[in-house]
Structures are given as structure tokens and as C-alpha cells.
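Morning!

This is the sequence you dropped in the shared folder:
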Amino acid sequence: MQVLFKSRHPQAAELRDLAERRVRFVLRRLGWLVPRAEVQMSDVNGPRGGVDKRCQVELRTDGAGSVVVASVAKDWRTALDHALTRAARFLMRLWRRGSDSRRMRQRLIAHEG
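The structure's back. C-alpha cells below.
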């Protein structure tokens, strides 16, 4: 899996290695479905502070298109973890839907024959 990291904020750029490790860890079971992941970190308010650290995760999947999830939190790590959790949950839902429909088709074919 190819992991791309984008950020203009110097503090977020320090999180590049952590972000890549977290993406690989969270998607370790679904890696075959996601050939490319892109993580973008940004500071919404700038130096004013507050709940303004934004993380956007885009997962390019084989067959299901792109999945884009964003999260805003008080710190970078929390924003990253929330976005990855939501993205992984959504991917699992997509995969289950696909496997459920395949199973139903197999049952119909077996029933007709």
C-alpha cells in the first residue's frame, strides 16, 4: 500500500512517520482492498488554537472508488485516529455489502439449478 502524506504545517509534518504507521496498522487487514492512501493534515484556525486540527484521509480502493473521511480535533493524533477509524469502518461496510450480495447471487444460482 502506498501512503502519501500532505501538510503545510511544520508541526504536522513531524507526524509523517506516525501517520504512515497508523494507516498501515489500521488497514492491515484491508490492505489488499486499498492500494493507495492519502493523509492531509491542516490547522484550520492557525495560531489562534482551539479545536482546529483537521485530518482528511482518502483511500483509493480497487472497484469501490475513493473513500474520503475528515475529522477535526484538538490535537493531530486524535484527528488522525478518528479519521482512520471512520474510514476503516466505512470500508468494512462496503466490503460486507459486496460479499453479502455475492453470497445472495450464489444462493440464487444454486437454488435455480
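Headline: The mean pLDDT is 83.

More detail when I'm at my desk.
O.
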